[in-house]
Amino acid sequence: MAQAPIAELEIEENGRKIRLAKGGEKRGVSPVATAPVPVEAKAPVASAAPSPVTTAPKAAEAIITAPSYGVFHLAPSPDAPPYVTVGQKVEAGQQVGLLEAMKVFNPVRATAAGVVEEILVGAGTEVDMGTPLFRLV
User: Which of 10, 80, 109, 122 is most buried, by the most CB atoms less than 10 A from its CB?
Assistant: First the structure.
C-alpha cells in the first residue's frame, strides 16, 4: 500500500467491511452509508503571488521511459560495461538498458536519437511502466 497511488481503500462484502488508510492514523469504524453523499465542488484557492520560475530554455530533449514494469539494469551483467553512459550519442532503436521482471529480460530502446544528458534511475531500481529513465538532448 505504501507504493500504491491511493491513500485509502474500503471494501464491503457480505456485511463485512475492511478499510485501509495510509499514514498510520487510527480511526474508528464508521457507520455504513445507505445513500451516496454528494460532494460539493470547491473553488480553487488563489495563492498570494505565483513565484516566477527561472529556467533556461533547453534544446529539444527527449525522455526515454520504461516500456514496462521491472528492475532496471544499465548493463547486461554486473561485470559488463553499461549499454550507454552520459555524453554518449545514441540512435533511435538502440538498446540503452534492460528491464527484468520475473526472470524475463526486456530491452529498453532509445525512442529518439540524441546524446545521453542524464541517467535518471540507478541500476537495480524497481520501476513502473512510464518511469523516465534517460534524458537525451
Answer: 109
Give 105's strand partners. 100
Q: How far apart are CA 122 and CA 72, in angstroms?
A: 8
**Percentage, residues of the chain above pLDDT 90:** 55
Q: Is the pLDDT of residue 23 over 60?
A: yes
* pTM, 2 dp: 0.56
What's the confidence (pLDDT) of residue 109?
Answer: 96
Q: Identify any residues that bridge with 135 across adjacent strands, giving them in sequence order.
A: 63, 118
**Cβ-based neighbours of 46, under 8 Å, separated by 6 or more:** none
Grid cell at residue 24: 498510520
Q: What are phi and psi of 26, to 5 degrees?
A: -95, 125
Q: What is the amino acid identity at position 43?
A: A
Is there a contact between 90 and 83 (Cβ–Cβ < 8 Å)?
A: no
Where b means 16+ CB within 10 Å and e means fewer, 54-72 reads eeeeeeeebebbbeeebeb
Is the predicted pLDDT of residue 56 greater than 90, yes or no? Answer: no
- Roughly how many angstroms between the first and final C-alpha of the chain, as a whole number? 36
